[in-house]
Amino acid sequence: MKQKTLSTIGEFGIIDIIASRFKKIAEKNIAASLGDDAFSFIAGKEIISITKDMLIEDIHFKKDWISPFDLGKKSIEVNISDLAAMGGAQPKYIFIGFGAPSDTEIVWIKEFASGIFAACNKYGAKICGGDTVRADKITISITALGISEKIIKRSGAKDGDLIGITNFCGNSAAGLDLLSKYGAKYHFNRDEKNLIKKHNQPIARLKEGAVISDFANSMTDSSDGLFVSISLLADASKKGAEIFIDKIPISPQLKRTVADKDKMLSYLLFGGEDFELAFTLREKKAEILKKLLPQISFIGRIKSKKGITFKEYGKKIKIDGAAFKHF
Amino acid sequence: MKQKTLSTIGEFGIIDIIASRFKKIAEKNIAASLGDDAFSFIAGKEIISITKDMLIEDIHFKKDWISPFDLGKKSIEVNISDLAAMGGAQPKYIFIGFGAPSDTEIVWIKEFASGIFAACNKYGAKICGGDTVRADKITISITALGISEKIIKRSGAKDGDLIGITNFCGNSAAGLDLLSKYGAKYHFNRDEKNLIKKHNQPIARLKEGAVISDFANSMTDSSDGLFVSISLLADASKKGAEIFIDKIPISPQLKRTVADKDKMLSYLLFGGEDFELAFTLREKKAEILKKLLPQISFIGRIKSKKGITFKEYGKKIKIDGAAFKHF
Q1: From the candidates B22, B39, B112, B116, which should be mutated to test the interface with A, based on the most A CB atoms within 10 A?
Q2: A6-148 CATH, one of 3.30.1330.10, 3.20.20.190, 1.20.140.10, 3.65.10.10
């Protein structure tokens, strides 16, 4: 009999294997646990949030497609994005796990380290330790610790809440596709370069996360795409959601680059790594938040009935498609 | 001109690249930083210590040589060992970064997860989150968080201090060499099996670390071998050390398995992954600690003059050799 392998169960399958043996932590000082963007616990008057993300060469990035500086910076930004999603927890301490093949050029590592440092400095976070090992592929495993007074979990969405997103969707995935199709040396036009930049140089919505935390019931980042983010919020809150397709914000660059409607929809719903924040809030709070953060859009509504449905210009539509699969 | 690569500078070279851009953290709430077994900071009345270790297939282990259960357990033990080295910080929260190829068998992952859980349960530590990704090789990146009232750093060794080690040296490296030479399916004798077990099933000296913390000036674990551990303690403390070769404890199994004197010395000084604790303390405290932990040995002395020298039966000797190179 053929052995079942990882490809048959996917990333969420692994999480299930782990979670099935995992007794729900019910300690009173634990504020958020498995199933949120970060793990959070109470220490004195503060909440400490810890997140961990891995980036592996040829899986999450190709050395030809991203400069070592940008890669270092991105490695930090994607972790800060998790802290942003907890309600803008202030990044304090960063731990760097780094593996590299023996033939990695020193100049590459120096540039990579510069990117790491630039991002940490920007957020006032300190590099506090880690582990460096030999590996066949560049392997980056960052742990980031942030501190805040309160946190926003994924599980607080309420029936009737509006669903918000901090900015454009799909840019990063479109940029990745351009790199994948033409390689990094192709003569891209200005729009295309801009989309690639969104992929290689994402910026965590840390300040936005802190502002939104005063208004939102639930929040997560859009690292695996908008559809996955909204599903995570709805599932964690034991609710469903309706997505307003026509309200999803599209950048001018993406609009000019992608002509096909289905392809556009695929980027908007399933394109990962935009690192925007998806959140829910009571409708009455929407107007004042929009004044504070004009770039946000409201792109759906939480429903009591489970499952995700779609509307376009007020009419129900059906959409086939699966979320980005890690495995 | 040929580009300089990682192989020319080694692991400590990378740490230098990172450290050279790293402003020494001088916040008053930071208790231990880069250059210790863990990063420690003060939160309320407690000290929180965080450590991170990576294990990569075909670099740190081969799937043929270790069961998935043992690998899961070892992944945790090596991190707990760092907490032990900080003075027995109580493990609280564990974060698991895990990468695997798509063709990894589910049964392998389940067994691996069981090993992780067994080790966490043993120490009362909770699995709190992490990241699962696709990777070409099994990639394990664990972050462990422990809590204690005080910590022991590497930098507190004083001139004249005795150097102690919690138990036998060299077993793990000898076990690894047996696997490397004969493969896992060879019919090993009982001694050889025991050495392999020491490699595959290390046990963190957590309780010992807590006991020693009441006596020691400095401490680290012997993950990279005894010589490296003593060098780290001496360097961090701006001192030197004398190692008493004839006092290094040798297990009966290792004694019966290794006949060659140079090979034995190489295991004792440079063999990694024993995960014993190396520490320094004032000589007057040695007797009472030995009563509490009879298995410890005193195998050297801190000297004011920098550098590491060797004695055998009271006579100075010269030893050539380099510590285990990661790259």
Answers
A1: B39
A2: 3.30.1330.10
Segments in chain B below pLDDT 70: 1-3, 6-27, 321-327
CB proximity A283 to B under 8 Å = no
| Interface touch A106/B133, C-beta < 8 Å | no
How far apart, in whole angstroms, are the C-alpha atoms of residue A210 and residue A84? 7
Q: Do B129 and A51 touch (CB under 8 A)?
A: yes
Per-residue pLDDT of A134-188, as tens digits, reads 899 999 999 999 999 999 999 999 999 999 999 999 999 999 999 999 999 999 9
From the list A3, A25, A95, the residue facing B52 with the nearest CB is A95
Among A132, A145, A148, the strongest candidate for a mutation testing the B interface, having the largest count of B CBs within 10 A, is A132
Q: Do domains A6-148 and A162-317 have the same CATH topology?
A: no
According to DSSP, residue B165 is labeled E
Q: How far apart are CA B302 and CA B282, in angstroms?
A: 10
Helical packing angle, A6-20 and B106-123, nearest 10°: 20
| Domain boundaries, given as residue ranges, for chain A | 6-148, 162-317
Task: Indicate yes or no: CB of B106 within 8 angstroms of CB of A52.
Answer: no
A139 contacts B54? CB cut-off 8 A: yes
- Closest CA–CA distance from residue A42 to any residue of chain B (Å): 10
What CATH number was assigned to the domain covering residues A162-317? 3.90.650.10
The DSSP annotation for A12-39 comes to: HHHHHHHHHT-PPP--TTEEE-TTSSSE
Contacts of B274 (CB under 8 A, 6+ apart): B167, B168, B169, B170, B171, B172, B173, B198, B202, B222, B225, B226
| Cα angle A24-A30-A35, degrees, rounded to a multiple of 5 | 55
Question: pTM of the prediction?
Answer: 0.86
Which among B48, B54, B98 has the least Cβ separation from residue A131? B54
Classified as helix, coil or strand, B224 is: coil
ipTM score assigned to the predicted complex? 0.80
